């Protein structure tokens, strides 16, 4: 302290603000990335091994595995009507934005 400087911060020296918690979490994850990778991979393998034990009462129907066996709930005509409605609404919307609306209000 022979040069006249003290250990206390002066008015010119402001302490750095702490980074936000999400930034601190990101820095922590990046600095410990290998550990995070090992933990995530271990948890994934463990979950795959425990899946049959944890899902004992789960039932998968064999009929659900046959593609094309289900009947469609809507007809082709209804699909065509829906597509026509979408086109009409799209054209109406674009006409309104261009100021060419010919519909009565």
Automatic annotation (TrEMBL):
Listed GO biological process terms: attachment of GPI anchor to protein
InterPro entries the record matches: Gaa1
Keywords annotated in UniProt: Membrane, Transmembrane, Transmembrane helix
Gene Ontology, cellular component aspect: GPI-anchor transamidase complex
Transmembrane segments: 25-51
PANTHER family: GLYCOSYLPHOSPHATIDYLINOSITOL ANCHOR ATTACHMENT 1 PROTEIN
Name of the molecule in the record: Uncharacterized protein
């Amino acid at each position: 302290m022979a040069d006249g400087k003290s250990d206390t911060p002066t008015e010119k020296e402001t302490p750095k603000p702490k980074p936000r918690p999400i930034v601190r979490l990101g820095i922590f994850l990046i600095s410990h990335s290998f550990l995070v990778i090992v933990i995530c991979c271990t948890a994934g393998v463990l979950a795959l091994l425990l899946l049959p034990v944890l899902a004992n009462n789960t039932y998968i129907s064999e009929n659900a595995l046959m593609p094309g066996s289900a009947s469609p709930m809507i007809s082709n005509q209804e699909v065509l009507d829906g597509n026509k409605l979408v086109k009409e609404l799209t054209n109406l919307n674009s006409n309104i934005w261009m100021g060419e609306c010919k519909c009565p209000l």
